Amino acid sequence: xxxxxxxxxxxxxxxxxxxxxxxxxxxxxxxxxxxxxxxxxxxxxxxxxxxxxxxxxxxxxxxxxxxxxxxxxxxxxxxxxxxxxxxxxxxxxxxxxxxxxxxxxxxxxxxxxxx
Amino acid sequence: xxxxxxxxxxxxxxxxxxxxxxxxxxxxxxxxxxxxxxxxxxxxxxxxxxxxxxxxxxxxxxxxxxxxxxxxxxxxxxxxxxxxxxxxxxxxxxxxxxxxxxxxxxxxxx
Lengths: 115, 110
Prior knowledge:
The complex is a heterodimer.
Chain A: E1 4-7, E2 10-13, E3 19-25, E4 31-38, E5 42-51, E6 54-57, E7 65-66, E8 76-78, E9 87-94, E10 105-106, E11 110-114
Parallel strand pairs in A: 2-11
Antiparallel strand pairs in A: 1-3, 3-8, 4-5, 4-9, 5-6, 7-8, 9-10, 9-11
Chain B: E1 4-7, E2 10-14, E3 19-25, E4 32-37, E5 43-49, E6 55-58, E7 61-65, E8 71-76, E9 85-91, E10 99-100, E11 104-109
C-alpha cells in the first residue's frame, strides 16, 4: 500500500530536549516536505526536499533541521524544542519535479506538545 | 510574502444546503490545488486547476479557477454529513514551495 509513515504520532516532551520525527514514504517520490498545522493558520511549510541531499527552507524553518540522506526518509529534527513548537506536524511526499506540480500525499500527522 | 487568503473561516450548513469556499491571491497563480481534511485526519488531495477559467467537477463538487488566475472556489451542492471537514486551497506558484490557505471548516447539521 502506498503510504507516508510518520513516527511518533503523539509526543509530549520538555523544553530543550532534542527530538526527531521520522518520515518515510514507499512511493519512490523525489519530493518530500514538512508542514506544521496550527488553528487559524492552516498548513505552513517548514522545509522541503527536491531529492537526496537537496533541501530548502519553507516559510517557517526557524528551530528545525532536516536531512535527506535516502530517498525514502526525511526526518524532522528539533534540536532544542520550545513551547511555541507545540503543533500538529505533517510530512508529505509528491511525484512533483521541476515543471510538474504533483499532488501531495500526507502522512497521518504527529502531534507534538512541548512543556 | 506570498499569501493566499481563504474565506470563510467557518461555515455551518443544514444538510442539503450548498456550500462555497473562496481563495484569493494578490499575485497570479500558476496553478492551485484543493485538499480536504476530515476531523482528526490528514489532508487529502482533491484536484488541481491550471488553466485560466477552468472548471472541473467531481460529483457534487465544482472547482473553478478565475479568469485572471488570482482566485479559485470550491462549491458543494446539497451537502451531506460526509462532507464535514476542512477544505484547503494550495498555491504552488513558487515552484517547490507550497502556500496553503488557512482553510474553511465545514459543519453539516443533519
